[in-house]
Write a structure and sequence with these properties.
By secondary structure, the protein is mainly beta. The protein contains three helices and 22 strands. The chain has one domain.
Length: about 300
């Protein structure tokens, strides 16, 4: 395919980020149970474009050695995660003290770039993260990246997962998209409850989080989306518009790209997943023990599209 033809194909670029084989690591995973973990293995991120216009690799550098089809798929290694909370995907907070079974204060966890921190002589992960570089083949144009409007984020359980287990996982799951150290938005598979709270003494309903050490929770300040609602609380639309088999920029004046003008030098996209400890679904559930015997897992797939820059 010539360069002009490849530029045209850029308009229909599709990218999928897969967080695969996430498994509950304990029969209880309440916010206040410090040894509870969920195993999260980041899987692969792939681009499907005729002509190899848009390519992806794991890590921080584009690979321009060749344009093999293999370069449309990259993978990353995950880890186990324990419930945590954040308002910016930079500072992470975990329980410091309890009042019976209610969390009464919080402290900042000293995490490394993979989310690892120590507490009480044990090691935990506050989050799982996959780092990728998205870029275009030389002279094939530039692209703006948006959410796929059809299936922006899909969570699927394994055959052994009970409905109760799966619903609790989906309820507290958060997926953050970070570009060049900037948290663009946070996506939840289901809308956080506006009538129920987690097991925090000073609890906040809905999109809650801990933003500083102390004894309070608050409404999250980051842009947030949920289920098939791809417009944030400030009316920013993060989803591309579908035009037949092609994609266009969002209609109207409030379109929000995950990144713009992605070209030959590439852009860094970080996908961060965590269990929001203050969510009403991140509580102790005794009947999850039976589900654990089947070792259930679930996969998270984030679907993005690239739209050719005018």
């Amino acid at each position: 395919m010539n360069i002009c033809g490849m530029k045209k194909q850029l308009r229909i670029a599709a990218i999928s980020v897969v967080m695969a084989a996430v498994a509950l690591g304990s029969a209880t995973y309440a916010w206040f149970v410090t040894n509870s973990t969920v195993k999260a293995t980041t899987g692969s991120i792939s681009a499907q474009t005729n002509g190899m216009v848009l390519q992806i690799v794991s890590g921080d550098m584009p690979n321009h050695e060749d344009n093999r089809e293999a370069l449309t798929t990259a993978s990353a290694v995950g880890n186990q995660i324990s419930p945590s909370s954040t308002d910016n995907a930079k500072s992470w907070f975990v329980p410091a003290t309890w009042s019976n079974t209610m969390v009464s204060s919080y402290k900042e966890a000293s995490t490394n770039e993979k989310g690892l921190y120590s507490q009480g002589g044990n090691s935990y992960y506050a989050f799982a993260v996959g780092n990728y570089t998205v870029y275009t083949v030389k002279e094939t144009g530039r692209a703006d990246v948006y959410l796929n409007p059809d299936n922006p984020l899909v969570v699927t359980p394994s055959a052994g997962a009970s409905e109760n287990w799966f619903n609790k996982i989906k309820g507290s799951l958060r997926v953050g998209i970070v570009v060049d150290d900037d948290l663009k938005f946070v996506y939840a598979p289901t809308q956080p409850s506006s009538t129920e709270t987690g097991n925090d003494v000073n609890a906040t309903m809905g999109w809650s989080c801990v933003a500083s050490a102390g004894d309070t929770t608050q409404v999250a300040s980051y842009m947030h989306l949920y289920a098939d609602n791809l417009v944030d609380q400030q009316n920013g639309n993060w989803a591309a518009a579908k035009n037949g088999t092609l994609y266009d920029k969002p209609a109207g004046q409030n379109g929000k790209a995950i990144d713009t003008n992605v070209g030959y030098n590439g852009t860094h996209i970080k996908v961060v997943i965590w269990m929001e400890g203050t969510d009403s679904d991140c509580v102790n559930v005794s009947d999850l023990d039976d589900a654990q015997k089947a070792n259930p897992t679930f996969n998270v797939t984030l679907n993005l599209v690239g739209v050719a820059t005018e």
